[in-house]
Design the sequence.
């Protein structure tokens, strides 16, 4: 199960540097490529606004 970035994202860039597989893309709201995501949770751990959570 992949992680997902919500609309609470402030595009700070913290998560993109932490992703070990490069699954996060920049934008007004960042996005995670579910096919690349390994469900490690590193991005969610570093998000300062808690905008990243496991996809339901």
Sequence:
């Amino acid at each position: 199960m992949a992680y997902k970035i919500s609309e609470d994202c402030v595009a700070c860039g913290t998560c993109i540097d932490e992703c070990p597989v490069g699954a996060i893309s920049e934008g007004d709201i960042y996005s995670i490529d579910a096919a690349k995501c390994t469900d490690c949770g590193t991005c969610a751990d570093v998000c300062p606004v808690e905008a990243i959570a496991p996809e339901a």
